[in-house]
Structures are given as structure tokens and as C-alpha cells.
Amino acid sequence: MRRFTHCTGSIGPGLGFPSQGDRTRLDASVQGFVKRADRSCARALSAKAIVMSSALALAPSNGIDRIGKYPITREIGTGPEGSVWLASDPFAGREVAIKLLDPLAMSHPELERRFRRALMNEAALAARLSHPHIVALYDAVADEDLCYVVMEYVAGGNLEAYCDARALLPLDQAVEIVFKCALALEHAHQQGVIHRNLKASNILVRRGTDIKVSDFCSGHAERYARVLPKAQALAYSSPEQLQELGLTQQTDIYSLGVVMYRLLTGREPFHGANDAELAEKIIAATPAAPSRHRCELPSALEQVVLRALERDTRRRYATWAEFSGDLTDAYRMLDHAEVENSDTERFNIVRALSFFRDFQDVEIWETLRSANFRRFPAGRIIMREGERGECFYVLTAGEVEVTRSGTPLDILTPGDCFGEMLYFSQSSARRTTTIKTLGPTTVLEIDSMALRLASAPCQVQFNKAFMRILIDRLTWANAKLAAA
Ligand SMILES: Nc1ncnc2c1ncn2[C@@H]1O[C@H](COP(=O)(O)OP(=O)(O)OP(=O)(O)O)[C@@H](O)[C@H]1O
Ligand SMILES: [Mg+2]
Predict the structure, then answer these.
(1) 29: confidence class by pLDDT, cuts 50, 70, 90
(2) Does position 240 have pLDDT exceeding 60, yes or no?
(3) Strands 391-397, 441-447: parallel, antiparallel or unpaired by DSSP?
């Protein structure tokens, strides 16, 4: 139901009336009547007021000009709960997407009230989620007449486009996307949030495999909006969700399994002639092996999808860590050229290094954005004393020798870092040691300047890691002195 799409003018608080200024120009008797009217009458008048607003509109466009304080650019699309609009936030100086919900489509005022409360509760939780693969939530409004959420705008559409059998992604890219979703959902789960409404259209694409999971705040509120899950989302609903059992992170694991099945095969795991038949199959049937639809699917990958789709929660993945672990193993077996260039591989290499052991996933992603992997053959000098430099390094594979004025000082192994003094000093500082590879070596090169601009939590993690290294080196030097 799209109540707002064809009106001209602004929508602001107060029975769907336009802006504050416009509202005062509405006939006072209509407003007075609205206040006295019962709910159903108020709903009808709300719609009427919007229609009336077109007569009052000062703006020449044919769509909504403003929602709350946000000027509208255009409509992005519609979904079962309302419509989504591209808008600007002049104060923050950024584009935003606004989801205008349609609580008045509900049949009962009590449900409507609970919907608002649930929406605000969920929005408060969702706003706490800060992750590179989760759409940021900026604001939520649920007053008498308007419910909307203001969120980060993600420009590249959603995953539906890649769930078509004629437009499937290469396997490694599909797996990479699923992996990022799993990390995002694991982060949400750690914050006490279960999505409950995960589906392809709620995974937005920035570009390439860079995705963001959206609509964290809709899953719970939805229960009050419609008794049964929405037809569109039914295919993603877990068996326990359909049976109205208690939900855990496993329900999201199931839904991500459905997304994965669709990304890999272009088909849904189950089909039914109608909703009841589909629900029955979800609860009782076993999906066809994905390789029946795409023969090149490796068995390891197929096993991951099928285990995520297990209808019995005792056989399904119990945690995101288990799911991601198997996914990573399956990914390694894929026959693809640029393993180390993929985001997933980069993430996993860094995650395993002792240097990053206290980092949250989100901080690792942040680090990777200002870092490069560089490979060197044996005997190559990576850093020379006296040189100026802007980067520091964490060794990811191989060994390097540290020398000063030709005197060997140390041998570094994966997880060790070098060149970090520049991070603490001014850009005019010079390298104090020389670093030479002892065999084929790979390093993570991190731009010190970019790191100074990183988020506070990320910088704190680096400071802690450097401090640990400093203490280790002092201890080592003391031991050497004592032994001398
Ligand atoms: N933050 C956003 N940035 C850009 N586009 C968005 C954003 N949020 C939603 N969209 C787009 O708006 C359209 C409608 O989204 P909407 O969330 O209303 O429907 P849905 O995802 O199909 O269902 P649901 O309401 O259950 O999430 C979709 O095409 C979606 O890709
Ligand atoms: Mg959505």
C-alpha cells in the first residue's frame, strides 16, 4: 500500500500533514475534527490531509518534497512495509535513505501502538550496530502519524539482481558476499540483535562484493504488523520462525543459507503452489542439492549451504563462527586466480596474526581499508635506516632480519611489526633500522597517516598492540643485558 507516493508537498509530524507552516494553513475545523475523530476516521482524514496538501504545496515537483527535516531527492523503491526515499541531511551534509513505514495499513489500533513501540525499541538496538557491513541507522521517528527510519544510503541496489539464474556471480564472489554477511550478523548477535528479516533485498551493494546488511529494525516490529510473515519473506523464514518457536542466531543462519542457495543457483530451496504449501515444505522437506542446479559447485561449498538450511536446529550451524569457518575452508578450495587479493582472504590472513589478536572484526576491516599486501623475494631490503617513510609493516608470511649499522639485532616472524616508530613521531622522522627479507616474504603495509585518521577504537587497538611489542622488546633487551 503506497499512501504517500502521489502527493506533492512535505510530510511532517501530525496526521501526515505537510510541513509545520503548511499545516497552519489547513482548515482549522478539519484539524479539530481530526483530533476528536475515532481512529478509523482519523486514518481516513490522514489520507485526506495528504491529498489536501497537494493543493497547498509550494513546491513544483510531483513527489514528496520533505519527510520531517529531510528534503527528498527521489523515490528509491517500495517494499511490503512502505517506501524508501533518497533524501539529504543538510545538517550532516550527507545523502540518506529514508524508509517511510506504513503502520496505518494495520488493522487494529493496539497492534499499531505495539508496532510503534517495537519499532522504536528495535531501532534503538539497531542504532548501536557499527560495522562496515551493516547499514548505519541515523534516526527513527514513530509518532502518531508518521513512522520512518533514516539510514545510510547505499547506491548499488541489492542482491536480488544476482539471484537470477541468468546473472549469477562467480562462485568466489558469491561466497565472499555471504562471508561478509556472516561477519555482520555475528557482530549484531554479539550486540544482542537478531535480524529476523534477512533476505536478498535486505543486503545492499555498495560496489563489487562490498555489501551492507540493512533493515535490522524491521524484523521484530513486523510481528505486530502482520500475523503471518510477509509473502515475500516467507521463503527466507526458518522452520522455527514459521512455528513461532523461540528464535536464536540460528534463524538468521537459516535465512542467510537461503540467500546463499539463491546466489549460487539462482533458485529458491523450496517451492510451493501457495504460501501454505511453501511453509509446509520449509518445515518438513529437504532442499534439492544445489549442485543439481549448478554442476561446478564443489561439494564442500554445497555442504555449507545444506547445513545452514538444516530444518533441525541441532544439525544446523550453531554459531556464526562455525559457519564462517566452514565457508572459509570451502572458499580456499575454489579454483580462482586471485585468492590473496580477495577481501575475505585478506581478512582471514590478518585475523590470524597475533598483532591483531585483540582487534574486533570491524577494526580489522577498517585497517584493511588503509593497508596493502606486498610480496618480496628473498634478500630484498624493505626498509633502510636513514630513509624517510610513511608506512609501517606487519609481517604476514616469511622472515626478515633487523640490522643497525650492519649489526644484526633481531629476526622477525609473522605477526611482528616494524617501522612503527613513524606512527608515533612526526613525518620528518627517519628509519632507525634496516629490514631485509630472509626468504619470500609478505607484509601488510599500513599508511601511518591514514591510521591517524582512523576511528578512536581502532587507534586504541593499535596503541595497545604497539605497547605490547614495546614491552616484549624491553624485556628481551633486559634479558640480553643481564646475560652479557
Ligand atoms: N539504505 C538504503 N539505501 C539504498 N537503497 C535502499 C536502502 N534501503 C532500502 N533500499 C531499497 O529500497 C527498496 C525498498 O526497500 P524495502 O526495505 O522497503 O523493501 P524490502 O527490502 O523488499 O522489504 P522489507 O521491508 O521487508 O525490508 C529496495 O529496492 C531496496 O534495495
Ligand atoms: Mg528492506
Answers:
(1) very low
(2) yes
(3) antiparallel
What's the distance, CA 439 to chain centroid?
39
Query: What does the alpha-carbon distance between residue 303 and residue 366 come to, in Å, rounded to a whole number?
Result: 31
Does 79 have pLDDT greater than 90? no
Closest CA to 10 of 2, 24, 1, 21: 21
Choose among 396, 295, 336: nearest CA to 176. 336
Distance of CA 363 to the CA centre of its chain: 14
Q: How far apart are the CA of 80 and the centre of ligand 1, in A?
A: 9
- Cβ–ligand 1 distance for 241 under 6 Å, the answer no
Q: What is the CA radius of gyration of the chain?
A: 27
Instruction: Output the residue whose Cα is nearest ligand 1's atom 16.
Output: 79
Tell me the residue type at 253: I
This model's pTM is above 0.90 = no
Which cell numbers in the block locate residue 55? 493543493
Using the mean position of ligand 1's atoms as its centre, give its distance from the Cα of residue 168 in Å. Answer: 21
* Mean of per-residue pLDDT scores for the chain: 79
- pLDDT tens by residue, 362-382: 889 888 877 888 888 888 888
- Does 153 sit in the ligand 1 pocket, CB within 6 Å? yes
Helix ranges restricted to H, 271-381: 275-284, 299-308, 320-332, 343-351, 361-369
Where does residue 175 fall: left (phi above 0), alpha (psi -120 to 50 degrees), or beta otherwise?
alpha
81 C-alpha to center of ligand 1: Å? 10
The 8-class DSSP code of residue 356 comes to G
Q: pLDDT tens digits for 102-132? A: 755 555 677 677 777 777 777 787 778 888 8
Task: Collect all residues with Cβ–Cβ distance below 8 Å to 220 and sequence separation of at least 6.
Answer: 118, 121, 122, 196
Which residues are within 8 A (CB) of 462 and not within 5 positions of it... i.e. 6 or more apart?
423, 451, 454
